[in-house]
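This section describes the prediction task in plain terms. A model, or a person checking by hand, is given the sequence of a single protein chain and must write out its three-dimensional structure as a string of tokens. No templates, partner chains or ligands are provided. The sample shown here is typical of the held-out split.
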Amino acid sequence: MTSNPRDGVHGPGGLPPAALTDDEYRVEGREKVLGLARFAADYRRPEMLWAAYVRSPVPHARIVDIDLSAARAEPGVHAVLGGSDVRPARIGRTLQDWPVLAWDRVRFIGDRVVAIAAETAEAAERAAALVRVDYEELPAVFDPWAALAPNAPSLHPEADDYVYLGGERPPRRHPNVQGEHLVTVGDVDIESIMASAAHVFEHEFTTPRQHQGYIEPHACLVWLDDDGAVHVVSTNKGPFMLRTQMAASLGIAEATIEIESPFIGGDFGGKGLSLDEQTCFFLARATRRPVMAVMSYLDEMQAAAPRHRTWLRLRTGVDRDGRFLAHEMTALVDGGAYAAGKPGRVLAPLGTLETLAPYRVPNSRLGVTAVYTNSVPGGNMRAPGEYQAIFAGESHVDMIAAALGIDPLELRRRNSIRDGDLSPSGAVAHQPRVVDVVNALDEIAERRPRRSGSGHGIGFAIGIRGPASGRSTVAVRLQANGSIEVGTGVPDQGGGTHTAIRRVASAAMSVDPGRIHVRLGSTASGLVDTGVSGSRITYHTSRAVEIAILQLRDALEEVAARRLAVDRGSVRLADDAFSVRDATGSVRRHPFEELARDVELDPFVVTFDGESDDRGASMDSVAGYAVEVDVDRETGQVTIADATLVADVGTIINPLAHQGQLTGGFVGGLGGAMMEELVVTDGRVETVGLHDYKLPTSADSPPFRTILLPSPPGPGAFGAKMAGEMSNGAVAPAIANAIADAIGIRVTSLPLSAERIHGLLRSQGG
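The expected answer:
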């Protein structure tokens, strides 16, 4: 079954007919197509200055002396600031451990030491080249194991001074630990269970750093009013969270900071950390002029919090039938020089704990540790931690199946997690459709001839995910012209958030989408939102919109009933008018516009956080892949012959955007599987731009189909479920499993490059 963008629209609790029009264009599409959309770097203010930086050329050193005199004398320069001018301000989403400008030591190549504001970007860069910094190099640590050694140098000896926005910082067993977390489920004596198991399998996997690959670089514009108010235009996808972080960093009240996040040119997890806003604040304060900063891609690649390099060790005990008895996983994460890019309280990517998330494992012990090194700081990328975990876990499952002589899909079906089961990481599963997805993959396998070992193979992999937590606030207001304004504080990073808001409001109100206008407010609007992250928007924001619109509709029906002098229960809204059939059979109508002119209603403001959701806990979403490959034994080159995604979905709010999320997730996963790697050698980033990094293009995309499995209503508006991060994690293991099926070579490190496969073939005499 090949999907159509409209497949799956109708489902239990599906959208009303008003939402199923052809009015599917993006609400911001016209502005983007005509070049009218303004991104952060497009903003201008009178007398605006441009920022540039002096960055560290060494991975670890003490700053001995800085000479700023030549830079300050450069024509067009208005401010030159060093670390002493900003101390003690640090950057961080949860742990503020990254100095705005280094004042005593640098910790990675690219660490910012001096900031300059000048009339032009060129003048600022010229001045930066004139700064002289004397360094006393210190021992550098690039290996996480070495960083954990008892005699390893402490990279953050002043850690007790750091601001921690997560309450009380959890204790650490070593000074170079950023954060760690351990989960146990079932019997804590894993070793005794392993000893009694029929078989125990142990495998190790590694994954590289990856850059998120957004096209728009980080940018911001900052200016200060005479009364001290701070205004920020930013590419940050969570403006309210950024406001909190800036207030803590700068020691000023949140109420004095207004942040606007306009159009955002891509995110993929990378636009949650901002590096320039605090620096621009200090420059703007020093010059009393607006200051703009736009990161170059050299700066992006060497400093903008890529996906973490990770090592995973998996051990699983099974019975004679291949049923999982116990699972142990240890993940070591290279966190880089700072933990500032991590948003969670633990300061380690908890997604790494999901190695066997789709399966029922009664006993588990799962641990992750993120470690400081003198390398580029790590941060979030799409499905943070889970991408690494699914590659390791689904490869591990296939390796177990091969050793036991069990069909890999049968082993998955035998161990699939069911509703109400406790996952290996301790979460309760809510209607997971793992078995249904496996069965659909099995049908695909049965239709394809098996030619294992011939250079052609097929591989399978499963991923499961639920939406992240957070809260969304919307304000719905009836306008005098009969239109409805939906105010929101969540920016659209390209995923179609505002289009989804309009479609939900249109459906809930039973009016044409053209009557719905979405307004993005700054942080001054009070419409507090956690921001775009963790595939939470369809759940939280759509529910907030649905609830607020239904409140407005309820109020208008009551007003219409009074105007028409009838019982409220007989009033219906249809075709942009309230109507009622009277005793003679005629229909009396009250046009929507007329009602809007006659009534004044306060806006309906709704905050939804899922904590007291009347629809119960959010449902898990499951995605499975069947991927066919051809492998050239002479070169190791892998060609993807065919790929099919099976996804369990609820009601689809926007069919085109939904399909775009699934297809985009596949292509993103394909890049991570086959080509993407941010290469760092002794702390120095070798891939200095996207031209070196090799993102996948349309030419790299193989034949791809989706099979949508309509499911019971999800937790979002009208029964919607998340889609954003469900489709990228299982791509790499499906390809790795297909390669093993094709040539008998097991690749346990990403990317699955021709060079790596060729080397394995040669080492094994293939």
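For orientation: The CA atoms of residues 237 and 271 lie 6 Å apart.
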